[in-house]
Amino acid sequence: MRITEHPILEFLRGEEISFFFNGQELKGFEGETIAAALHAAGVRVLGHSHAMHRPRGLFCAIGNCSSCLMDVDGEPNIRICVEKLKPGMRVETQQGKGCLR
Amino acid sequence: MPKVKETEILIVGGGPAGLSAASAAANLGASVLVLERDGKPGGQLIKQTHKFFGSKKQYAGDRGYQIGDLLIEQCGNNPNVEVWTDTTALGIYEDGVVTAEGQAKHLKINPKKIIVATGASEKMIAFPNNDLPGIYGAGAVQTLMNVHGIVPGKRVLMIGAGNIGLIVSYQLMQAGVEIAAIIEAAPTIGGYLVHASKIQRAGVPILTSHTITEAYGDESVAGAIICKLDESWQPVSGSEQDLKVDVICLAVGLSPLTELCFQADCQMKYVSELSGHVPVRNEYLETTRPGLYVAGDVSGVEEASSAMVEGRLAGISAACSLGYGEDIAPKLQAEALAELSELRAGPAGQKTLRGIMNLMDKGGAVC
Ligand SMILES: Cc1cc2nc3c(=O)[nH]c(=O)nc-3n(C[C@H](O)[C@H](O)[C@H](O)COP(=O)(O)OP(=O)(O)OC[C@H]3O[C@@H](n4cnc5c(N)ncnc54)[C@H](O)[C@@H]3O)c2cc1C
User: Fold this and answer.
1) What is the CATH number of the domain that holds B245?
2) In chain A, which residues have their Cβ closer than 8 Å to the Cβ of B64?
3) Which UniProt keywords apply (chain A) (predicted)?
4) Which residues constitute the domain of residue B149?
């Protein structure tokens, strides 16, 4: 959920853009991270662990912990908590460890 | 761009420590390059909306993000300082070359001196289902809320009643989120009582001698079981409470982000008062690897106030070792050391001082 009114801060958001999460079109703002846009859209489960298939979500939000790795425009293991959203981006739940091409 | 970038002083991390180091060294005449993995320098400060505590000299009373902007401006106005954002330092090699990743390129930098100011990372605690989505570090909640303007959920259980737990709870309330409770395993509230009172007056319970026994939920957090602890920190049976929350926020401390120091072969030591493994260093913050300095949370978790002074001290020391400002450096170093002693005069500072004593004493478990 996005904050619309805040006693101290004013949020200067970029232009509204569309991107795709597992094929579904969602809206976000240019300049924010992919994780922020997914969160605002109510998506909290970003993937599953390899061995036990436990759900994985955002934990540190600053690129330290690797809990948020996803497949972005065909590239695996992207830390979506620091990667910025771009128009038309295809963000997908990663299957397995990903493979570099 | 040449294959290897040459610079006099390379600073890894553009938080309060790194930025203060950069302007201090540049003011003495050294050329400085700062690497910051984030898109904007400022470190933890950019997400802090509260008025800072600490001393007037270190901007007490200003809000964190305003202090960050001030430091960025100081560096921006100095022609000797270059800042590369979106650039992550990857390794420090035996010959002194530092590698980094920036804009999907592999970069090589050959500095004469290095200052590591990478800050700290959030600690985790053990309880069943602590890996469920909806469980965040306090810093992550701040980033979502204060940088991106997005609330993490509707109802939060905060774990930890130190200053970070209290401040982030208050910021969640300002953003319209309900706090079910703040729990704290210790028998007393660790943070400042002014913060605690503000929260309690708004009707949020702060439960000391309480812990979380488990989180539950299928694909993400749906609730948590908490219980009371007795004098020997054991769960009191029958005291369990079930809290329906969709967010659990951990504010249980930070640990120094020291991978680069380990990798650079600095001598490291575990010092609990400094929150983890930290590099052994001298009074002027030079580690056991000559020419490699540390400053800020990476050298022991403390506060932004002391991180800024440490940064200044490391910056002056590194510049002076290159022959800059040799006449005034001793005076500036003495001033910084005096400011650090002043900042560490309070009860929290006593713990840091004990930790530093322990660190500089050559005995104990060194690895
Ligand atoms: C909720 C909260 C409230 C706080 N309130 C106060 C307060 O009121 N008063 C106070 O004095 N202090 C406060 N602090 C503490 C203060 O923010 C920190 O102590 C301070 O930010 C530490 O500064 P630093 O420069 O060492 O680290 P950081 O601010 O963490 O900066 C480190 C920087 O290094 C970068 N980095 C890390 N690794 C790399 C790499 N490999 N390559 C490139 N860049 C890298 C990071 O992105 C980051 O920008 C608070 C902290 C929190 C979390």
Assistant:
1) 3.50.50.60
2) none
3) Oxidoreductase
4) 124-250
